[in-house]
Amino acid sequence: MQEDHEIFDLVSALENAEGKGTTFYSWLDVPSTATTSEIAKAYRKLSMRIHPDKNPGVKGAHERFARLGVIAKILRNKESRKRYDFFYKNGVPRWRGTGYYYSRFRPGLGTVLVFLTMFTSALQYLVQKMNYKKDMARIELITSRAKRAAWGPKMIPTTGQRKVRVSLGEQVDEDGFAEGTKWIEMVVEGSDVYLPDEDGTLHPIDDSTATRPSLGNTWFIVLMKNLFARVTAKKATSEEGENEKPYDVDGSDSDSDDTSSAANSRGTRSGTATPQEDGTRSSSLQTRGLPVEKAGGKRRKVNKRR
């Protein structure tokens, strides 16, 4: 009840401020059988003594005065005083209900998420331990059956490899297993038991076969590892792309090609032939038997005088 929660808070606050074991009645200096008028008189007397105006600069004076008013109100009300008298005689319960603690210590979203993460991870770890125990028990059962089939009922170890068939069903008696169960082939060599695959490779069957419980295999840790790996790989790819320099298909530097193209373009637009074009033009004129002269840095044709 909300009234009970208010009484619990006042009891705790009063003991913290006035000393452990202080009750509503002892603070007012009246017996628990005091009448309403006696309680009112005690309240006026104490309120005048602890009033904040008469205690300037005293730490917590306003809180004490406000607390006194609430306590007096509870004791002067018949129903609320009855509830307090019940806890006064029987004691305030240590566990005050989930509603009480939730209303006063209401967790935020972050706290709830952290709690759920820790709870589910612990639960998953517990399941891992249970599965590990089951796997170890099954491995011990299968290996003991394989050794029994290889060594015989007296369990006398033999040398060399021996291939045996082992039942995965439940054991019925000392000499056989339940009918209709699945059988697998295994290899026993000394005290070691192996499971062969199709290509003949032998895989040991021992405690290393079962997956040990680990906090690193819980969902939250695995999620963080995967996120970190993705971010690292993405960053490495980005840095590798920035360090690459583009080249043409023929392996030449694109900047050099662009410079040559720009020079050829400027020469064409200005009407001046490039060195390569000058050489080609001179060769053509000399082939035709026409002399070539240079004037002002430019080549031109000169007609012979007849």
UniProtKB/TrEMBL annotation:
Residues 23-88 form the J domain. It is a single-pass membrane protein. Residues 234-306 are annotated as: Disordered. It holds the Pfam family DnaJ. SUPFAM superfamilies: Chaperone J-domain. Its main location: membrane. Keywords: Membrane, Signal, Transmembrane, Transmembrane helix. CDD domains: DnaJ. Residues 297-306 have a biased composition (Basic residues). The chain crosses the membrane at residues 108-127. It comes from the Eukaryota. GO terms for cellular component: endomembrane system. PROSITE patterns: DNAJ_2. Residues 262-287 have a biased composition (Polar residues). It is found in: Endomembrane system. This is J domain-containing protein.
